[in-house]
Amino acid sequence: MHCISPLPCSPIISSPFTTFSSPKFPLQTFSYPKCFYIKSSIDKKPPSTEPTSWVSPDWLTNLTRSLTLGQNDDSNIPIASAKLEDVSELLGGALFLPLYKWMNEYGPIYRLAAGPRNFVVVSDPAIAKHVLRNYGTKYCKGLVAEVSEFLFGSGFAIAEGSLWTARRRAVVPSLHKTYLSVIVDRVFCRCAQRLVEKLRTDSLSGSSVNMEEKFSQLTLNVIGLAVFNYNFDSLNTDSPVIDAVYTALKEAELRSTDILPYWKIKALCKVVPRQIKAEKAVMLIRQTVEELIAKCREIVETEGERITEEEYVNDSDPSILRFLLASREEVTSAQLRDDLLSMLVAGHETTGSVLTWTSYLLSKDQASLRKAQDEVDRVLQGRLPTYEDIKNLKFLMRCINESMRLYPHPPVLLRRALVDDVLPGNYKVNPGQDIMISVYNIHHSPQVTVEI
Fold it and tell me: How many domains does the chain have?
């Protein structure tokens, strides 16, 4: 579950399991099993027999509501009555489930008082559009930046205002068409082939496979090579750097749900075991990235490399890091490190989630699975895909898009009001108000979409 953008609990697919290409071309793929069992982490579970958690109990939620909202609330926003079991599920389980339940009870906008915070939860596309369009003038990232600054520093993942604009403009040119074509061939296909080889072994042995984990490892390998030219090899080895990445992600997730943000007090971070572990993890991640930057910078300087064309790619190292250093942009190593960390940490889980959900949904729909297989067979004819093939894999792309509609990542977007504002529908928000845009609710709202 991703800290900054809480993830809908992904399905865990137990095998024998295979990729979804046809067995016509066994060199790259392998056959779909006749029998397999699929288990999802959002399947209903038996009621817990554990003692009730003290996290956000009803009395604290009610107290927070009275203190933060007062008696003169003229916002016109209904207040959701969240019980302990609801809030516990909100903080420790599938985030989108209680938010969707409350949307059906209270409508497309409601206020949720959970512990010391209260959120205005938005499930209306017009309101969501208003908040997102006014980012930088009326709204900022707020809680997102607070809980993850320890990891991302000033990276564009959490940067605000002019810094975000400047860093985005610096990084985007590296993602040109020629780069994507090279990376698909050298990185995407090769990493995917390694995963297929491992899955083939699991399939033959009848082993169960956690596909969420495998896809996350796959995307971490891809991003490591595409961004840094660094091979994590996470499908085959346990690396301290990989462990550090997940430790940092978990810490940011926990910070987003802590009742009291004690981690803002530096003295406590030096004595609390959880914070000591997180700090060591971030130090290792930053040290690794800084070493990669220094090594690449030395090569660029030694070779006198400069970008000579708009879609420049270094043949021996086509990574984004190499492009940014060859561009000779005036930027500190710390800023470059934070920007690249934004891609590494925030990027691989989102992509892994999409792959997991798409595979899960296709495995539940044999007709769509077969249609996707037939399209892949017709377009690729047994060869590995290229960037140009995407436009011809139309049905497969529709499957991926539908997967992202049903289970978007992130399922919520967080913003914080900077000034007094009136939302569409005459709903008022005050400065400092946290806004939670439920992408999942919007995608599932009967007022917005029609389920076929």
Answer: 2
How far is Cα of residue 223 from the mean position of the Cα atoms in its chain? 13
pLDDT in tens, 219-253: 999 999 999 999 988 888 888 888 898 899 889 88
Residue span of the structural domain in which 355 resides: 148-364
Please tell me the predicted confidence (pLDDT) of residue 237. 84
Residue 66 neighbours by CB distance under 10 Å: 11
Q: Which two tokens stand for residue 401?
A: 């898009």
Token pair in block for residue 395: 């049905």
- The CATH code of the domain that includes 219 is 1.10.630.10
35 falls in which pLDDT band (50, 70, 90)? very low
- The Cα 452–Cα 339 span in angstroms is 41
Q: Go through 171-180 and write b for each residue having 16 or more CB atoms within 10 A of its CB, e for each that does not.
A: bebbeeeebb
Pairing between strand 434-438 and 117-122?
parallel
Pick the residue with more confidence: 368 or 62?
368
- Span 262-283, average pLDDT: 93
One domain for residues 282 and 427: no
Rounded to a whole number of angstroms, the distance between the first and last alpha carbons of the chain is 29
Whether 303 and 435 share a structural domain: no
Identify the DSSP state of 262: G
Calpha distance 6→421 (Å, rounded)? 26
What is the chain's Cα-based Rg? 23
Q: Is residue 15 part of a domain?
A: no
pTM comes to: 0.82
Which CATH number do you get for residue 439? Answer: 3.30.43.20
Closest CA to 409 of 334, 342, 358: 358
CB 3 within 8 A of CB 251: yes
Task: Assess whether 115 and 200 both reside in one domain.
Answer: no
Q: How far apart are CA 91 and CA 49, in angstroms?
A: 18
Which of 305, 338, 364 is where one domain is finished?
Answer: 364
